[in-house]
Specification:
By secondary structure, the protein is α+β, with helices and mostly antiparallel strands. The protein has four domains: 226 residues, Histidine kinase-like ATPase, C-terminal domain (Heat Shock Protein 90); 139 residues, Ribosomal Protein S5, domain 2 (2-Layer Sandwich); 80 residues, Rossmann fold (3-Layer(aba) Sandwich); 97 residues, Four Helix Bundle (Hemerythrin (Met), subunit A) (Up-down Bundle). The protein is built from 22 helices and 21 strands. A nine-stranded mixed β-sheet has the order 1-6-5-4-7-3-2-8-9, with helices on one face. Strands 10-11-14-12-13 form a five-stranded mixed β-sheet, sandwiched between helices.
Length: 632
């Protein structure tokens, strides 16, 4: 096949330019990324050889080689792993197939300093491109295991790359960096220097499972020297805690996650007895951009007796903990275990349960001992964790114990449900909440008026999952969770001299208007009634106690479920001047056209106040315009 010259995808081209002209504080990490990619390729080959007996490959000496040529100023990172086919090179190297790439590039450009930029690069699997931070040209030669021909990829990072088929290529992948000219004043970044290579590998890749070997040049006698293994290959999770530094743990996390920032928390677990396993888990300090996308790769690395099995074992943690990275090394699983077997394996279920409980208890400990870390965790992952309130009834109480929510008690600090209950007013038996798109929209809702006036605390829930879990959970410590936008609210109506409540008195006075409006607006509402939750607004829309909220209806429809439209209730404030005037006009003149339009407008205004839209926006605008014109 002749040499092809192809153009990079737009995002890849932009990323390359950022790499080439970078001022990142730590260029050394390019070597870590290349060694990490090579390690992944060796893991994949070992796994492929276990699953496919017909794969004709030699796995007796899987390793990574680093070879430097000081005269030619080249650095080569070579592995004898799985390799890539021609099509895979085109797909994996020429493009960046990630839905969050554009946002990533924007944040990378806007990073306030070099350290911030360093923290962004690794998140999108673009470690290969980091080679352009130190190289003018990059050449990749690869041959996929089981194939006869290899592929050569070359680029100077200027918008295009070349691809050609090669007949003589060893199995695996070799990345050769044609390094930028040496800086005589900065020998610390001489990447052809053996001591520099040793330093980088020891710092970043000492724990890599496979040997990382430095290929030396010839000695003074002209003989080729023996390769030097640079890493210890000791599994951090198998070493005693006091023998491993935090820096070593952090580097393992970065290797697993491709995140250049330190984790928020490191969690170790060693289970002994009838079924033994070791786990080393990491809670990130930032949520990845694609955490809520369908293609987000989750799961822990699974080893059996130090042999790598898979890097995305989803069965080890529930989906609401999908942000956790780490390694689990089991003693009694088969090396040929498949995903189908994992789903049924009782040992896997046992580990899943124990790991879940350990992580939730870790968050609880953070809550008690380090509020800054806890706040960071909840800001980044609280929305995900709340999914477990719906999907994991066995751990629901543990999740609730570490959950916090915005509320009216404190504009800055969220509250736990336990703290809310402690502050409840005498005689209050329910935990009140309101859902919405944002804190501001909820605080401005008419439903809040009476609660604000009486100083009753309300939880302000703004995540889509909040619409679901409050119904599933139902109560906390015997206190029912109650939406202030559903059902009737009785916050204690005053009584007159005869012992009748003010609402009873108003009900008699407004009975005619309420009946007429219920009939007039019957296509849109199931009932019009007086409200005890309003103090300022003339009207609001509420749902019946057992009805779905509009947001929940829309959520189900978005998931393809058929949900019948639900008529809601219009509540009127009998103390508002507009409602009083409307009642007087109806009492004196009965049903007439202009009065009907006022009732229609009042309903539309209530819909708007809760963030909805009128049934017929054009008619609403017309009615408002006509009313405004008559006032001039």
């Amino acid at each position: 096949m002749p040499t092809e010259t192809l153009e990079f995808q737009v995002e890849a081209r932009q990323l390359l330019q950022l790499m080439i002209h970078s001022v990142y504080s730590n260029k050394d990490v390019f070597l870590r990324e290349l060694v990490s990619n090579a390690s992944d390729a060796l893991d994949k080959l070992r796994l492929a050889s276990l699953r496919d007996d017909g794969l004709d490959v030699d796995v007796s000496d899987l390793h990574i080689e680093i070879e430097a040529d000081k005269d030619a100023r080249t650095l080569t990172v070579r592995d004898n792993g799985i390799g890539m086919s021609y099509d895979e090179v085109t797909r994996l190297i020429g493009t960046i197939a990630n839905s969050g790439t554009a946002k990533f590039l924007q944040e990378l450009r806007e990073a306030k300093d070099a350290a911030s930029a360093d923290g962004l690069i690794g998140q999108f699997g673009v470690g290969f491109y980091s080679g352009f931070m130190v190289a003018d040209e990059v050449t990749l030669v690869t041959r996929r295991a089981g194939e006869k021909q290899g592929t050569r990829w070359t680029s100077r990072g200027e918008g295009t790359y070349t691809l050609e088929t090669v007949d003589e290529a060893p199995q695996g992948t070799a990345v050769t960096l044609h390094l930028k000219p040496a800086d005589p004043e900065n020998q610390l970044h001489d990447y052809t220097s053996p001591w520099k290579i040793r330093e980088i590998v020891k710092r970043y890749s000492d724990f890599i499972t496979w040997p990382v070997r430095l290929v030396p040049g010839k000695g003074d006698d002209g003989e080729q020297r023996e390769p030097e293994t640079l890493n210890s290959m000791k599994a951090l999770w198998a070493r005693p805690r006091d023998e491993v530094s935090d820096d070593e743990y952090h580097e393992l996390y970065k290797h697993l996650s491709h995140d250049w920032r330190d984790p928020l928390e490191t969690v170790r677990l060693q289970a002994e007895g009838t079924f033994e396993y070791q786990a080393l888990l990491f809670v990130p300090s930032h949520a990845p951009h694609d955490l809520f996308t369908q293609g987000y790769q989750r799961g822990l690395q699974l080893y059996v007796k130090r042999v790598f099995i898979m890097d995305d074992c989803e069965e080890l943690l529930p989906p609401y903990l999908r942000f956790v990275k780490g390694v689990v090394d089991a003693q009694d699983l088969s090396l040929n275990v498949s995903r189908e077997i994992l789903q049924q394996d009782r040992h896997i279920r046992m580990m899943r349960s124990r790991l879940t409980k350990k992580l939730l208890s870790t968050v609880k400990d953070l809550m008690a001992s380090d509020q800054d870390k806890y706040r960071t965790f909840w800001r980044e992952f609280g929305t995900v964790l709340k999914e477990g309130l719906v999907t994991d009834p066995d751990n629901r109480d543990a999740i609730l114990a570490v959950s916090s929510f915005a509320g009216t008690h404190d504009a800055e600090e969220p509250t736990t449900l336990a703290a809310y209950v402690e502050r409840m007013k005498e005689g209050q038996n329910e935990i009140y909440y309101l859902t919405g798109d944002s804190r501001q929209s909820i605080e401005n809702s008419p439903h809040m008026e009476a609660f604000r006036a009486k100083g009753i605390e309300v939880l302000l829930l703004t995540d889509p999952v909040d619409e679901v879990w409050v119904d599933v959970v139902g109560e906390f410590e015997g206190k029912k969770l109650r939406s202030i936008a559903k059902g009737e609210v009785d916050l204690g109506a005053g009584e007159n001299a005869d012992g009748d409540t003010e609402k009873d008195k108003s009900g008699e006075e407004y009975a005619g208007l309420l009946g007429w409006m219920t009939e007039r607006l019957g296509d849109d509402v199931k009932e019009v009634r007086l409200s005890s939750r309003l103090t300022v607004s003339p009207a609001c829309i509420v749902s019946d106690a057992d009805d779905l909220t509009p947001a929940l209806e829309n959520m189900y429809r978005a998931m393809g479920q058929e949900v019948p439209a639900t008529k809601r209730i219009l509540e009127l404030n009998p103390e508002h001047q507009l409602v009083k005037a409307l009642n007087q006009a109806y009492t004196e003149n009965g049903d007439r056209g202009e009065l009907a339009e006022t009732a229609e407008l009042l309903h539309a205004l209530a819909v708007l106040a809760e963030g909805g839209r009128p049934k017929e926006p054009a008619r609403f605008v017309q009615l408002v315009t006509e009313r405004l014109a008559r006032t001039l």
